């Protein structure tokens, strides 16, 4: 075979598909479900858990519709819809797609076994051109006394649960923590969320503040600056969580949402001169640094690049194309070519699917300043836009545009509010295209849409 891809998550599937398009023979090895974490325990089920609650909350913000909402969410129906998205954790349709794309599937756990060699049980696959590691990431469980022994939930259990826990304790104020805290609170759980700092660190501060306010409005007990010091649990009974502020919380489930690390343990990295379980670093084509011969690639969560499905798939397409092209001879890989994931350094979009949504791309104001840019920050209250006031009575939300004054281009945008997710791609296009503000002025948003926030941002900037 020409190429072996380890891991059939969304990223591995994309690498394999692109490499095979030019006629290379590609084998994909998967130890669990074809489709990976994203399809079965992450993106899709978590968004399905959130969506019905958002629709209900949106209706409640509209006189006329609000009166028609006479009950709460039907949790059983929401869980059933979630399960339909995961195909009841059955991957046969995704496995069929793989075969229909001309890719071979080997089921089992793969490990490297020296250069270009991948062992799956007794079988050794030898790749003529490339081995690609697309093994994803695993949750990090912090070293809190009693926690690891108490069988806490990770995002897997929290996205696949069949019933609503009476009381849920969430540790971590990142994306997983806030999304799943809101999902379960709206499904009827009594939720406590503890975060050692503010919510959504790394984003603009107002994003975490608006989300914290919304969670509290949903009844979540948000404890900022609080860390658990001990967790105790008898068998499968309730958890008792002791917190650094001296308080105690009882919960039926405890969700660990404190980040993820690349899945490199037991991958056989030591057989190719790397450290078992260590982190990988890659160039923009996905080639792993420190390995001779240009045959080992890594993409997606395992690669140390942004842990997001769309960004991993983007890098996977570049890697698949680079492998296919290199099979025919040396290639040039300048920035912004089809072989390079250049946008990883400039414009990584992310939507946090809470209500309000947080949609962010590029640099925050603080990150832009850290890079030494001459920055102008423009803020605008989205509720003042006619389109937003039509979408919801009392619309609350904020938009921020970060401008590089030297080049007069946008380097970062954040929108927080209801229904802002679909606004984000325009911002991504503006940043990737380095569209000058004077030209952006001519991109006229329709009236009355929330997109008119673009006009207001440019006017507030001074155009
Ligand atoms: C709760 C949650 C919600 C999320 N929501 C979003 C979202 O809304 N949008 C978004 O963009 N991102 C989201 N993410 C992140 C997203 O899930 C990941 O970025 C994405 O799944 C990464 O894809 P991947 O293919 O690199 O890895 P994975 O999806 O983890 O797939 C890796 C695959 O490799 C297999 N594998 C691992 N080791 C081996 C081995 N040794 N041999 C064979 N097979 C192996 C695994 O079984 C798995 O199928 C979310 C994450 C979580 C935890
Ligand atoms: N909508 C989306 O795009 C989406 C949704 C979910 C997850 N994801 C991706 O999945 C990845 C994992 O998400 P995540 O929320 O687990 O990680 P994260 O890195 O976003 O957040 C982890 C949070 O846990 C906190 N933390 C870490 N160690 C801690 C400790 N010992 N005690 C208390 N708090 C601690 C951190 O300060 C941080 O706030 C992220 O990279 C994210 O991009 C994306």
TrEMBL record:
It comes from the Bacteria. Pfam families: Pyr_redox_2, Pyr_redox_dim. GO terms for molecular function: dihydrolipoyl dehydrogenase (NADH) activity; flavin adenine dinucleotide binding. GO terms for biological process: 2-oxoglutarate metabolic process. Residues 1-312 form the FAD/NAD(P)-binding domain. Binds 1 FAD per subunit. NAD(+) binds at residues 172-179, 259. PANTHER family: DIHYDROLIPOYL DEHYDROGENASE, MITOCHONDRIAL, DISULFIDE OXIDOREDUCTASE. Belongs to the class-I pyridine nucleotide-disulfide oxidoreductase family. This is Dihydrolipoamide dehydrogenase.
């Amino acid at each position: 075979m020409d190429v072996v891809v380890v891991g059939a998550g969304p990223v591995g599937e994309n690498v394999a598909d692109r490499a095979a398009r030019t006629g290379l023979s590609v084998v994909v090895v998967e130890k669990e479900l074809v489709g990976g974490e994203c399809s079965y325990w992450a993106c899709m089920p978590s968004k399905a858990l959130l969506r019905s609650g958002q629709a209900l909350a949106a209706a409640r913000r509209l006189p006329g519709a609000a009166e028609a909402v006479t009950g709460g969410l039907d949790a059983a129906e929401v869980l059933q819809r979630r399960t339909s998205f995961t195909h009841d954790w059955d991957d046969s349709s995704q496995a069929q797609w793989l075969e229909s794309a001309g890719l071979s599937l080997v089921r089992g756990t793969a490990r490297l076994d020296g250069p270009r060699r991948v062992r799956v049980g007794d079988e050794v696959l030898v790749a003529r051109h490339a081995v690609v590691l697309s093994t994803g990431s695993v949750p990090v469980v912090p070293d809190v006394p009693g926690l690891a022994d108490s069988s806490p939930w990770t995002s897997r259990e929290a996205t696949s649960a069949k019933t609503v826990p009476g009381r849920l304790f969430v540790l971590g104020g990142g994306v997983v923590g806030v999304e799943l805290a809101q999902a379960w609170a709206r499904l009827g759980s009594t939720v406590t969320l503890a975060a050692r700092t503010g919510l959504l660190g790394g984003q603009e501060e107002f994003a975490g503040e608006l989300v914290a306010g919304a969670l509290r409005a949903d009844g979540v007990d948000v404890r900022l600056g609080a860390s658990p010091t001990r967790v105790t649990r008898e068998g499968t009974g309730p958890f008792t969580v002791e917190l650094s502020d001296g308080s105690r919380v009882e919960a039926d489930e405890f969700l660990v949402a404190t980040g993820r690390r690349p899945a490199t343990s037991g991958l056989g990295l030591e057989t190719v001169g790397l450290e078992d379980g260590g982190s990988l670093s890659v160039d923009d084509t996905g080639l792993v640094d420190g390995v001779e011969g240009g045959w080992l690639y890594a993409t997606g969560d395992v690669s140390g690049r942004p842990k997001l499905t769309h960004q991993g798939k983007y890098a996977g397409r570049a890697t698949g194309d680079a492998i296919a092209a290199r099979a025919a001879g040396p290639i040039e890989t300048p920035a912004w070519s089809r072989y390079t994931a250049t946008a990883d350094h400039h414009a990584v979009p992310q939507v946090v699917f809470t209500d309000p949504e947080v949609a962010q791309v590029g640099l925050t104001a603080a990150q832009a300043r850290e890079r030494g840019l001459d920055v102008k920050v423009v803020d605008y209250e989205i509720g003042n836009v006619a389109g937003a006031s039509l979408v919801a009575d009392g619309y609350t939300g904020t938009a921020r545009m970060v401008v590089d004054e030297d080049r007069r281009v946008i380097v970062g945008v954040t929108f927080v509010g209801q229904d802002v997710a679909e606004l984000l791609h325009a911002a991504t296009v503006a940043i990737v295209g380095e569209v000058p503000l004077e030209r952006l002025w001519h991109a006229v948003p329709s009236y009355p849409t929330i997109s008119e926030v673009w006009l207001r941002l440019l006017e507030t900037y001074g155009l």
